[in-house]
Amino acid sequence: MSDKLIVNFTPTGMIPTKKMTPHVPISVSEIVEDVHRATEVGITMVHLHARDEVTEEPSYKREIYSEIISGIRKFDPFLVICVSLSGRNFKELEQRADALYPDGDLKPDMGSLTLSSLNFNKVASMNSPDMIQNLANVMKEKGIVPELEAFDIGMVNFSKYLIKKGLLEPPYYFNILLGNIACSQANLLHAGIMIQDLPENSLWSLAGIGNAQLKMNSLSIAVGGGVRVGIEDNIWFDADRTKLARNVELIERIHTIAKANARELMTSKEFRVLMNMEPGNGSYGRK
Fold first, then answer.
1. Which of 99, 201, 88 is nearest to 151 (CA)?
2. 80: part of which helix (H) or strand (E)?
C-alpha cells in the first residue's frame, strides 16, 4: 500500500431512507451536492448508488447514474467514480450491468463486484458464480475496473479464481467489509487474515458496518490501509446513536484521524496512476 490514504466515499447506499435520516442524499441533485462537499474536504473516489427520487427505492438505470456522473464531473473531472452493481434488488444481468454502458464523459471508472452471495440482517445479496463472472467480463470488455467487495475470506479466495480465469487484471482494488452479521466480524484477527490473503498487487480499504465503521476506519488508517466511509454503511455519527451523521462530518472526522497518524490523502490522480487507469478529464476507466 501507499503511505497515502485512499478515502472511498459512500454517500447513499441501498438501505437508508429519508424516514431513517434526513441527511441521506437520494435525488440526483442531493447526491451531487454531497459529493461536491466531500471533494472540498478531500476524497479519492466515490461509490455511487442511484435511487428513484419518488419512491426512494434503489435503481439500476443508467439514465440516473449518467445524471449523477454528469453533475459530478462538472466540478471534478478527475474524481474516480464507481457505480454499484449490487444484487440485493436486481437479479438479471441486463439490470445489474446497465450502469456500465454510458460512454465518453459519462463512463464510470469502476463498478462494484461482490465476490459471493451473502445474507444481511433481513435480505440476501445474490451473486452466483455465473453472475460474478459475467459482470467481470462486461467490465473487462468496457475497460472498467472492478471494485472488489469482500465480506469474508472465501470471497478473497474467489477473486483468485477469477484471476486464474483471466477475468481480473492487476492492479486490484478491494473493499474489505467487516461487521455484517453473516460474514467476517469487525475485529483485528478477521481483518488481518483477509488483508494477508489478498492477491499480490492489491490496494485495499476497510469498511465497517454500522457502529463498526469508525473502528475499522481508524484501524485501517493506523496500519496503512484505505477507508470506505459514508452514510451507506452507518447513519449514526456516534456509537451511542444520539446524533445522525452528515456525510461531510464523516469525511472531516476521517481527515482528523488521518492527520493524527501522519497520513496524507491519496488524490484521484495518484490513485489513477497506481491502478493503471485513464487520467480523467475526459478519459475514464482503465488504459
1. 88
2. strand 80-83
Lookup: cell for 175: 473493499
Q: 82 Cβ partners below 8 Å, 6+ apart?
A: 8, 45, 46, 47, 48, 108, 109, 110, 111, 112, 147
- Interaxial angle between packed helices 153-164 and 129-142, expressed in degrees from 0 to 180 and rounded to the nearest 10: 50
List pLDDT tens digits, range 29-86.
999 999 999 999 999 999 999 999 999 999 999 999 999 999 999 999 999 999 999 8
CB 82 within 8 A of CB 109: yes
The DSSP code for 178 is E
Residue 277 bridge partners (DSSP): 286
Tell the residue number behind the cell numbers 487520467, with chain if given.
Answer: 279
* Global confidence as pTM: 0.97
CB 227 within 8 A of CB 217: yes
How far is residue 3's CA from residue 17's CA, in Å, rounded to a whole number?
36
Cell of 68: 449523477
Q: Report DSSP letters for 224-250, one per residue.
A: T-EEEESTTT-SBSSTT--SB--HHHH
Q: Map grid coordinates 438501505 to a residue.
A: 15
pLDDT (tens digit, 9 = 90+) per residue, 233-250? 999 999 999 999 999 999
Which residue type is seen at 13? Answer: G
Q: Which three three-digit cell numbers place residue 119?
A: 445474507
